[in-house]
Amino acid sequence: MNNNTIEDLYKKAVIKQYEEVKNGEDYIYLNAPTRGKLNKLCWEIFETKSVSTDDKAIFNTLLGFPFDLNTKNKFRSNTNQFRPIETFLKGETDPDKIEVVDLAAILVDFQLRPFNKFRKKIDEEDLKLINELRNINVPEKEVIINESLEKNEEEIFTVSNEDFVDTESETLPKKIILNQPQASKQTMFDIADKPKSEKIKYILITAGLVLLIIILFLALPEKECMQWSNDHYELVHCDEPIAGNLNDVIPKDENLLKFRKIIVCDTTNCFKPDGEAIIWYSKKDNIVEFFNNHGRHPENHSSLKPVTNHILGRYVYGKGIKCKE
Length: 325
What we know:
This protein is an alpha+beta fold. It folds into three domains: 6-119, no CATH class; 134-218, no CATH class; 225-317, no CATH class. It contains 13 helices and seven strands. It has helices spanning 6-21, 27-30, 35-48, 53-63, 72-76, 83-89, 98-107, 115-119, 124-134, 140-163, 168-193, 196-219, 309-317, and strands at 225-229, 232-236, 249-251, 261-262, 280-284, 287-291, 305-306. The strands form two sheets. A four-stranded antiparallel β-sheet has the order 4-6-5-7, with no helix packed on it. Strands 2-1-3 form a three-stranded antiparallel β-sheet, with no helix packed on it. The longest helix has 26 residues, at 168-193. The radius of gyration is 30 Å and the shape is elongated. The two termini are 57 Å apart.
């Protein structure tokens, strides 16, 4: 069995994150990834979200130029550089460049990125111990015993046919009843009869796998806070706000995770049939912003108000804001 390196663990963690999110919010990009889809997703992330300095450095290193809104055409025509990421996510290749995995981590929102950040969470001694435990060879005796068991099962089946050939209607049930207990007894005997040293090895292997799971669990702490970013709340670690984002970091609230700032246009449904508003707004310095629920403005903390026809007429219909076709 090959040893696991920290790079291997990082790649596995990113793939695990990919499997968890590929059917989620970015389904159209990740469920059946292509270089073109990944290119579009990457641009969308860097254009609409607050990205960290590390993420920008990854972008620059792998793609060969820094992110800039003015380079959109150049970026969108450069899909071939996403080929290694596509094949990595599909499990077709094992990339040599760790930057490929880093950019994949951005696309699937694996938080413990880049690799250097992940590396600091995994202790070299723990990794060495895990590999030592995982590399313990399974004794040859076990293989011999298993082969013997298979042979015995064949012999039992043959005897069963001969003993019950004259009672055709009862043949199948009797063969099943006869064979199953004997195979079960043989298996239990094998396990109980193993030398003590072999039992210890199996215990150590199991302990090593459990330790690996614990390390990965500790390395990926759950986010217990959130921070407003552009038009929604993003989950963050309480002591690690989004880089460059000055909005307050607040405790995680499942209800607020669905809270959105929205664009209201001429065909937006803003009222229930009885006239009750289902859109809320805030107004400051003659600027009106709309939200999908009541509460407080996430940036200036002013109370949101139910939208009215007057507000819509002045700031939406009066300005000719049309919905995109």
